[in-house]
Amino acid sequence: MADTQKSHSFPSLEKASKPELLRALESSLGTSFSSESILPTPNSLILVISGPSGVGKDAVIKRLRQVRENLHFVVTATSRPMRPGEGYPKGKSGNSWGKGDIVEGRYSRAETLRRILGDSGLFIFLVAESELALVERLIERKTESKEELLVRIATAREEVKLAKRFDYVVVNAQGKLEEAVNLVGSIIDAEKARVRQRTPFI
Ligand SMILES: Nc1ncnc2c1ncn2[C@@H]1O[C@H](COP(=O)(O)OP(=O)(O)OP(=O)(O)O)[C@@H](O)[C@H]1O
Description:
The chain is built from seven helices and five strands, in the order ααβαββαβααβα. The protein has helices at 2-9, 18-29, 57-67, 110-117, 131-141, 146-160, 177-192; strands at residues 46-50, 75-77, 105-107, 121-127, 168-171.
């Protein structure tokens, strides 16, 4: 009976205004519609970008920062030892991350970070399209001696074997930096939309 009465008082779908229809629907349901976001605020994301020396980690991160304002820091993990002063800033609580999505610092191996962070971090492995392309890029950079080049190439061969320990592999192909950056951006977006979010801690 009550239902019949309500349907009698319901305004015409054709004639009523949107606000009238919203009010009528709310009154039929007995609850009002919330304008609050349906999605919870995504967790902060710790992004670790690793890959062989010369693959373009710095270049990708620099560009990523330009195109995505909300990224504060990035961890890059290289074969190079960590420089003094590079490390994880602690969040306000002392053992959690602050607001920043990403933390910068150079670690000897992404493996160490994986041990610390487990699945709470997002690990991306950057590769060139081929070993030849990587070596060409290293040569063109002109920052390494012959000995350093040989060490970096040998290390790169070892590091590529570790790619399976990462969550994603992104190809930074010659002349296609923008594509690599876009793919990293898409991965970040996908992570933010995950139902089961990673929960960063340290
Ligand atoms: N997609 C690309 N196409 C062509 N050149 C690139 C690309 N990405 C990076 N480079 C160039 O390759 C060189 C190496 O890049 P970068 O210094 O960013 O590497 P890296 O991975 O940070 O190396 P390292 O671990 O030794 O610091 C630089 O000269 C950079 O400008």
